[in-house]
Amino acid sequence: MASLFLSLEPLKLKQWPAKDKKKIIALRKICECFERNHEYTEKEVNAILKNIFDDIASLRRALIEYGFMARSEDCSKYWRT
After folding, report:
1. Pairing mode of beta strands 39-40, 69-71
2. Which of 2, 15, 19, 31 could serve as 68's disulfide partner, Cβ 3.0–4.6 Å?
3. Contact, 63 vs 69, CB < 8 A?
4. DSSP character at residue 51
């Protein structure tokens, strides 16, 4: 896992992995930055992800696509699954 991240504390992703297996490892660690049973606005999600990696849209999309987070239909609320 260390090869995926520049640092674990604070969490800083080195680069977005190309392989699914590494993406899942990275996303599993990234989703730990979000509390369970808490709803976030898109702005709050972006603020957390910006500290981890510059391409927040790719991270946010991947968290949803790989099932680590869910969002409301209007994308106004996000939560950890």
Report:
1. unpaired
2. 31
3. yes
4. T
